Structures are given as C-alpha cells and as structure tokens.
Amino acid sequence: MRVVLASQSPARLKTLRAAGLDPEVVVSGVDESQIVTRDPANLAAALAQLKCRTVAPAHPDALVIGCDSVLAFEGDILGKPVDADDAVARWRRMRGRSGVLHTGHCVRLGDTELVDSASTIVHFAEPDDKEIAAYVASGEPLQVAGAFTIDGLGGAFVRAIEGDHHTVVGISLPMLRDLVADLGVRWTDLWSVSRPSV
Amino acid sequence: MRVVLASQSPARLKTLRAAGLDPEVVVSGVDESQIVTRDPANLAAALAQLKCRTVAPAHPDALVIGCDSVLAFEGDILGKPVDADDAVARWRRMRGRSGVLHTGHCVRLGDTELVDSASTIVHFAEPDDKEIAAYVASGEPLQVAGAFTIDGLGGAFVRAIEGDHHTVVGISLPMLRDLVADLGVRWTDLWSVSRPSV
Hints:
- The structure is a homodimer.
- Chain A is an alpha/beta fold.
- Chain A contains 6 helices and 7 strands.
- The first copy, chain A, is globular, with a radius of gyration of 17 Å.
C-alpha cells in the first residue's frame, strides 16, 4: 500500500522510516493561519486534517497521513519562535517548567477519514543562560514548534515526558497504528521491504 | 574535549550524535555475567561502571562514558532474548502491560568517577499475534535488552512512557548533562563543531 505523508517535517519522515515505513512526501502548502481556535488539541487536529484533505484528492489510492504539532505552555499556544530573541525568551520562561505537546493526526484511505490528537506532557530541564545562548545559536529552536526538539540538540534539555515520545517529535506511532487498524490495515503490513536494517 | 563511549550499541552512538556529540567508540568486551544482583537499577549501574572502568585507563585525557540497560518486568530482569521463540513468548506476556527500563551511567574524567542510573516506565501497546510474528521475524527484538526498541520498528508497540525517552534507547541525555556538570563541564561545550545540521 502506498503511504503519503502530507508534511514537510524531516523529523516526521525520519520517524516513519525508522519505524519501517517508506512514505512519499507531498507538501500541502496550506495557510495554517486560517484555523483559529483556543484549544491546542483541536488546533493540532484541525491543521492535520487541513493538510490531509489538501493532499488526499490527488492520491485516491494511497493511505494519506497529515500531522501538525503545537506546544501548550501556561495558557499559550506556541508554534515556531519568530526570531532568536524570542527563542531565548521562551527558554528562560520554559526551563524547569512543563508544557504539553499536542500532535494532531488525520489519516485518509479512499473516502474514509479519521482524526485524533495525542498529547504528551514535557518536563523541561534547566539549561543555564550560556546553554540557552548556545542552543539558540545552533539555529535548531527556530525551526520547530515550541522552540525545542527532543530528538536533536534539545534532547538533554528535556528532563522527562509523560506519554508517547513520538508525539513530541511530531507523529505518534502508537496512535497511527490504532488509526490504520480502524481503517482495516495491520501496522506491520505497512512495513517496507526496503527498510534499513536495524 | 575528547569523549569516549564505552559501548558498542549503535543506538547509543546515534543518540549522542543527534544530540551534538561526536564520541569515539571503544568496546569494553567485559564479561557481563560477573555482576550478579537482584536489583535492576544497581545491575545497570554496576555494568555501566564495569564498562567505563575497563576502557578509562587507556584514555586518561578523555571523558569516558559507560552505559548499560535492563528491563525490569514483573519481578524479572530481562536482557536480550535467547532466540525467536523467547522473543515471541516475551511479547505475548508484555503486551498491554508495563515494565521499567533501567539505564546505568558511569562517567570518568581523570580520577573522578560518577555513577547513576535512570529509570523510565514503559507502557506496551497490544500487538496481535501476527504483528508479534512480523516484529520477531524482522530480527530487531533479538538484538536488544527487553526485546523491544522504541526508536526502531518497535516504536508503534510502545503506547507511552513516564520518564526520559533516551533512557529507554539506552543513554539518558538529561542525566548525562547533570553528571558532566558535576564534573565541571558544560553540556553545550561538548557539542562537536562538525555535528550534522538539523
């Protein structure tokens, strides 16, 4: 079965590949600002659905997957930081505290569509000002929702999580497995024969 | 500063590289059966210390890191499965239940040594018998403590964790950051200038 990932996130593609899938990437190019809601889980789900619905019509025979992630932190919904100063300010606020990473998932196969969102609590470590400066100087925080990665340089700055790790990276594998099962597809049947050896 | 990883685990090396470090790998070749204890956290720590102490004398100027992981599951301490049948039997027992992944860490710099172990609760999903058969046939579960990975094909078979994700992979980045800080080394000063772009 062809799998199409409606997302340009390299972390999502890498996650699916490490888990045995070999999806085709099709970027939706949607305008995310058209979705407005105060609920972070609903926002992530609506954005995932928008991406999926934009891409799906051109791939009627494929399993199409759309995802989107936002960080909820003390009442705010945080996407990518606007610049380096914003990233520094956020990290000074986030260190030693906790947020919730919400990732919305939408899967479509033929005319059937399923949508759900996964939420994982993230407990941040306490990088000092010099570590924050070095992290922001690396450029990584500027490219990701919430100004951190858990699978990159930011890994040492997350003390612990509660929930699925892959949700934090941007695509929940156990949720995806449940969703495709509801579409009648066994997860392991999606494994590519050309997957890299482990 | 030179960093030496006293472990042959590709997952540990990959984790450190993704986090910005570029360690030299030196395999200790220790006989792990010489350590006997009923406490999984102590066992992981003692094995990490054994690896580190075996490798450190030849690298007096380097920061040497040793790690070892075990899965504690309902009173048992589980390393790698002995064969495919064992891996299948374990997964039939583990699915829908929870274990604790313990990873011991030992860091040495000069004559100073620090040892600690990190523990993360792992909640397994419920793969059906065909998924278990496909997973074991992939060969992956046979090569890892606890018969699962969270960063490979097994990713969809772990529903959630409580604690540090990297502990489950085999090396806790936040714990390592704390340990090297206690040695007077700032984590971000360990980042390699030749790290891959993110």
